[in-house]
Amino acid sequence: MVVRPSIVRRIADPRDAAAPPRVPRYTPAAALDAAADRSAARSALSHSSHDPASFYRRATFLKSAARLDQAPPDTGAEVAFAGRSNAGKSSALNALCGQRGLARTSRTPGRTQLLNFFALDAERRLVDLPGYGYARVSIPVKAEWQGVVADYVERRRSLKGLILLMDVRHPLKPLDVQLIDWVAHLGRPIHVLLTKADKLGRGAAARSLEGVRRALAEAPLQPSVQLFSAVAAHGVDALAGVLDRWLERVN
Ligand SMILES: Nc1nc2c(ncn2[C@@H]2O[C@H](COP(=O)(O)OP(=O)(O)OP(=O)(O)O)[C@@H](O)[C@H]2O)c(=O)[nH]1
Ligand SMILES: [Mg+2]
After folding, report:
1. Domain ranges of the chain
2. 136-164 residue pLDDT tens
3. Measured from the CA of 94, which atom of ligand 1 is nearest?
4. 207 in ligand 1 pocket by Cβ < 6 Å?
5. Rounded to the nearest whole angstrom, what is the distance from the C-alpha of residue 251 to the centroid of ligand 1?
6. How many C-alpha atoms does 72 have within 13 Å on its Cβ side?
7. How far apart are CA 170 and CA 222, in angstroms?
8. Which of 50-54, 70-74, 87-91 is predicted with the least confidence, judged by mean pLDDT?
9. Residue 84 per-residue DSSP state
10. Which class is 52-246 in CATH?
11. Looking at CB atoms within 10 Å, which of 19, 60, 69, 208 has the fewest?
12. Taking the model in full, what pTM does it have?
């Protein structure tokens, strides 16, 4: 039997706010260089004949849903962006799609409270999910959110995978870990974006990446991980590559 994590049972988890930042154990300079090389290779490619993210620029807003029965028909394939409030979900969507105002972003956490669907073509969609873990959201709103997102992740047949966003400076908070366990036990793949990478120097970002990668090697279904910055448009092509696979786009 699949047990929903307390993220969808409990209204607020004080341990979450009190969790210490995760400190990776060592500095893998080689990992950073390898990542930089891959990124340079991708960007060289994108400036020549092939732009991996070009398909996603066509995204258009489709609809918002407060409940699953308000969602678009459950056909084709979609990928949802999930994570704590303020992790950068809407910003990542906008960076991927090259459209500043596509998904609404805000300095105020808890801004996105609906499931927002974006159409890529007739059979493919991206979904911006409301964030979790924001203490100041009212209890009824939180309970509503938990039900809606849990229904969506558990029952949506066209959902091919979840992009889980975590601030590179504060990864793997307890609610994130619960989400990873729960989603993996539902058999859905996860790809992690460590967001706001521009807020750290290269070495610190690489240490966070390596620490999260090691931790997730122990997690069910072993989620993949990458650095991402919406501000610097860093990591967009790698994200597009994962989406292409999940949405069954053949290049
Ligand atoms: N420096 C930096 N800031 C970012 C980045 N991505 C997002 N932000 C900022 O972080 C804040 C939250 O971003 P959003 O994209 O609205 O976050 P969200 O996860 O959609 O938040 P909710 O909808 O409230 O769950 C905004 O002030 C963004 O400008 C990034 O890559 N770098
Ligand atoms: Mg948002």
Report:
1. 52-246
2. 666 666 676 678 888 999 999 999 999 99
3. 15
4. no
5. 30
6. 22
7. 19
8. 50-54
9. B
10. alpha beta
11. 69
12. 0.82
